[in-house]
Amino acid sequence: MAHCAVAGMTYEERGTSAKIGIVGNGWRAQFFHRAAAALPNRLSVVGVVARSASAAEAVARDWRVPTFGSVGELVRRQRPDYLIVSVPRASAPGLIVESVELGLPVLTETPPATELDSLVALWQSIRNPAMVQVAEQYLLYPGHAARLALVESGAIGDPTSAHVSSTHDYHAVSMIRGFLGVGFEPAIVRASAFVAPLADPLSQKGWTGDDRPKPATTVLATVDFAGRSGLYDFTDNQWHNQLRSRRVLVRGSLGELAGDEVVRLAGERTILHSSIVRYQSGYDLDLDGYDSEHLSFDGTVLWRNPFPGRRFSDEEIAIATLLTRMSAFAAGDGPAPYPLAEGAQDHALALAVAESVLKDIPIHVPRHPWASASQP
């Protein structure tokens, strides 16, 4: 959970500054660059590896950052503190290994490899896997960070099940595991897919102008963690399609959290209903500007914006939080943001969901090599 600023000093002014190299210049890489550009006191992109002349020209023009033809050249010329690998998943493993061999910590885009065999091979080929972190940002969203803080506070007792219908694959698995506090124990996955008509008016590029219902697939999966359970629920393009809501339900031994609503047993013959409340500036005669301030529960602040005055969206807050934590980690000033073992486990479970749908059978997920070398 992000922490607030202290004594009039903003988070980005008091933390560790870092020089960052980026490998790739696609849609996701642009998020990292924008976050760094918005926090010049904390983050500086000192170079981008662009594999084509057109990509290098675009980066030089739009990002105003020097480009290089290889990771080695970027490292030799610019001496970054860490590298962000934001390339297609099939290309990522080789670049991750190369970066670690050059002695640099790596923040790799999700997922870190393609299939399970390539995940295991990547893990086994890295001399020091602790140097590799995964850019998993969803539990850093303000709402999810507040929900996680509430669950970890014990307000609903021990978490026993989590239902996530919001994002897909490894991201949703990360949220389920995070809310349940699940590590690397074996699991059994049972999944099915259902097709139904659904209008799809929005895409990554905005409004499509097409309101005709078309076949859309919904995948439902249960993940049995031997005493705790997850329910995965995702419909095609649910990230952008506002006709499908985002739902988070976490049930515990003393109550449950449904979205922002909480019911819990607070004592003998005492059941309480409360809400997580978001304070947003900029409404009506609040002239301080539109910004997320904090999220609270029964008078206790669960999350406070670490970047006040930046007017970041939730995604931008999550990415900026991830980068500042990675900077502290690379400097030896903070814990690992999201270790490779965690990202590998998320993807292994997501692959099991896809396999269960394809084969229409339960899939047993055993302990993988990264489990024994990782902290739960």
Describe the structure.
The protein is an alpha/beta fold. 31% of the residues lie in helices and 29% in strands. It has eleven helices and 19 strands. The chain has helices at residues 11-14, 27-38, 53-62, 71-78, 92-101, 116-125, 142-152, 169-180, 314-330, 340-359, 369-372, and strands spanning 18-23, 43-49, 67-68, 82-85, 106-108, 132-134, 159-165, 187-198, 202-203, 206-207, 214-224, 229-235, 247-252, 255-258, 261-267, 270-281, 291-297, 300-304, 363-365. The strands form three sheets. The protein has an eleven-stranded mixed sheet. A six-stranded parallel sheet has the order 3-2-1-4-5-6, sandwiched between helices. A hairpin with a 2-residue loop joins strand 9 (202-203) and strand 10 (206-207). Helix 6 runs antiparallel to helix 10 (340-359) and helix 8 (169-180) packs across helix 10 (340-359). The protein starts with 10 loop residues before the first helix and ends with a helix. 43% of the residues are buried. Mean pLDDT is 92; it is low at 1-13.
Which secondary-structure class do the elements indicate? alpha/beta
Distance between the termini: 18 Å
**Total beta strand runs:** 19
Series of secondary-structure elements, N-terminal to C-terminal? HEHEHEHEHEHEHEHEEEEEEEEEEEHHEH
Could you tell me the mean pLDDT? Answer: 92
- The share of residues in extended strands comes to 25-35%
Largest sheet: 11 strands, mixed
| Low-pLDDT ranges | 1-13
Spatial strand arrangement across the major sheet: 18-17-16-15-14-13-7-12-11-8-19
- The general outline is globular
Oligomeric nature of the chains = single chain
The helix tally amounts to 11
